[in-house]
Amino acid sequence: MRKVIGIGETVLDIIFKGDTPINAVPGGSVFNGLISLGRSGVKTTFISETGNDRIGRRIISFLEENGVDASNVCVHKDSKSPLSLAFLDDNNDAEYIFYKDHPHDNLDFSYPEINNDDIVMFGSFYAVNPVIRSQVAAFLDYAKSHGAIIYYDVNYRASHRNDVIKIRANLLENLEYCDIVRGSVDDFEVLFGHSDADKIYRNDISFYTRNFILTQGAKSVELRANGISKSYLVERMETVSTIGAGDNFNAGLVYGMIKNNVTKQQIAYGMPEALWDKLIASAQQFAGECCKSIYNYIEGVRS
Asked: Are β-strands 180-184 and 149-153 bridged in parallel, bridged antiparallel, or unpaired?
């Protein structure tokens, strides 16, 4: 049975509407996607870290309750778990403030079993953080050497704009590792100062990987992959919260890859447009479902 292995941060998301807190849920970019995949019956494992407190214990139990193997979540005994404050605006888009107290970040985990065509998901600042870079890179080397499909969600927030120069080498190395990369217009505006899909692909992506997806919120999804250049319309809908929309886009695309038996070899040689259509449709379905609730993940279970 194919597996999905994620590596990324954990947080407690405290969600505000205006200045009033309305919900508090376990979260994190890769975390959110894995919860949705676990709820969909996919075998999943999470590599992460948390504090030695009530929040950390809740995050681990939440993973386990949703079918995600949490045995590789490192608990820092002298740290508090990270918090994220998410303030929803009138369009239910979020502005974030992050609080983290891990003074001695040092991932301690055993490498899970990885086989050909298992899928590794990683991204956000966690993927480029210099403090844990050696451990993240070593794991990606391990995953690549064992034939995993590596899916990278750039997810680089404006709060780290001043760190772009410091993390640039790590970012480029991540692009070399990955088989598929997705990012938002906001990510690339912060990183490269432009947001046009063709320009990003031509100047910043295609040298490293041929498979690129650009999401633009309510605007079109742009695909550039091995000679394919295509736009996908985004269905208009009433949103409750867009927190987790991109994370669930990732989950839906990965779910589609497993459902359609996509292999690393297929990706390398170029998937047909019809197959990409199925993957993007699955990604949009997961993202849309997530936006209909105040939670960061899909609520339904798929067969």
From this structure: parallel
First-last CA distance in the chain: 15
Write the single-letter amino acid at 244: G
Q: Alpha-carbon distance 99 to 85, whole Å? A: 8
Q: How far apart (Å, rounded) are the C-alpha atoms in residues 184 and 296? A: 18
Asked if pLDDT for residue 104 goes beyond 90, the answer is no
Q: Which residue has the tokens 């990183």?
A: 191
pLDDT of residue 277: 98
Residue pLDDT, tens place only, 119-153: 999 999 999 999 899 999 999 999 999 999 999 99
Distance CA 82, CA 8 (A): 13
Residue scoring higher pLDDT (96 or 106): 96
List of long-range contacts for 157-162, beta carbons under 8 Å, 24+ apart: 157/96, 157/124, 157/125, 157/186, 157/190, 158/186, 158/190, 159/96, 159/98, 160/125, 160/190, 161/190
Could you tell me whether strands 68-76 and 43-51 are parallel, antiparallel, or unpaired per DSSP bridges? parallel
